[in-house]
Design goal:
alpha+beta; single chain; 6 strands; 37% helix; Beta-Lactamase
Length: 157
């Protein structure tokens, strides 16, 4: 599914729904079932000072990730996407699924504030390209524009 098609489908899913968890759940499912060669797609949401597992598709995953740890924590701390062609070459990679070989993590930002990250894993090395990063950044921006963020819920663990 080209990213323009993904974004059109996402717009339909998000239309009129402001709930962050519901939107993250549908977004994760849409991406997982429409992009080839993925073995995990999902959200980690910022709770206090760590990322906590949110809606996802794929095998069970790590529940809590410290800021700055692994690919997800690095993307969150930098507030910038991290594309890793070979997770075995990423010094602080956290292994949740040993079959994962490459990863793309996009920060979820709302009005400049970090809400969490969207994480994609693939069993193929070098699966993700700059076009994937740009496409996912645009899709995550759509998700954030549509979703209402409850600051009190985000602060709690």
């Amino acid at each position: 599914m080209p990213y323009a098609d993904l974004q059109r489908s996402l717009a339909g899913l998000l239309d009129g729904e402001p709930d962050l968890i519901a939107n993250c759940a549908n977004f994760s499912a849409l991406v997982y079932h429409n992009l080839p060669d993925l073995n995990w797609a999902g959200c980690y949401l910022l709770r206090a000072d760590e990322l906590v597992l949110g809606p996802f598709q794929g095998q069970p995953a790590c529940v809590r990730i410290a800021m700055g740890r692994g690919v997800c924590g690095t993307a969150a701390a930098r507030r910038a996407s991290v594309l890793v062609p070979d997770v075995h070459a990423f010094a602080d990679h956290i292994v949740c699924d040993p079959l994962s070989r490459s990863e793309l993590v996009v920060p979820m930002l709302k009005d400049g504030a970090l809400v969490g990250v969207f994480d994609l894993d693939s069993p193929l090395p070098d699966r993700f390209r700059p076009a994937d990063q740009a496409g996912m950044e645009a899709a995550v921006a759509m998700l954030m524009r549509a979703s209402r963020i409850d600051a009190a819920a985000m602060a709690s663990s």
